[in-house]
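Question (not urgent): is this output format expected?
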Amino acid sequence: MPEACLTTHPASKVLDASESRQLDECENIIRRGWDTFLEVGRALAMIRDRRLYRDKYATYEDYCRQKWEYSKTHANRLVEAAAVAAVLTPIGVTVKSESQLRPLVALSPKEIPDAWKRAEELAAGNPVTAKIVRRAVEDFKTGPGPDSLGGPKRPGEGCPLPAPCSKLRGRTPASPALKLIDKIEKAARTNDLGTILAALKTLRKHLKA
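Got this back:
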């Protein structure tokens, strides 16, 4: 970020020479495009927070739309992505797109590194995609479920239970136990731990009967 972007918040609507240079430098960063989206986000934040748009535009939203053809939502996403990146880059994380960072915006700065670490675990050596980051954030908030990456991973195809599952498959479709297994499977796909535990408790009673 340019040194000129470190001036104090001005009171006058008219930009002085220093502020005009600051605006030029920030806008030059934005012109370099998507490859520098983190710098773009920081530059937009500076222009917004210090109202460097005020001599030509009534609002920050007008500035983004008329100057860059950015919606206010898109501009804010870039600003938020830059804020998240400021937490991750010091710990060696290389960010490739704004969409990777978007799910992390809902977390506090202290939570972001842990959620990213979970995303790397889910990626298992593959690129960390935005989809994986979203799942990592969900896991971080609720705790990892049995179907974190989609698709059952326990013995018996489509079954989150081990041994008893294959035996109960032989019962009639009207079997209460079989219905409970189907309920558990559906809950596992959405990581609904409460429903899974309740159904397991009921299933245990049927097996003991």
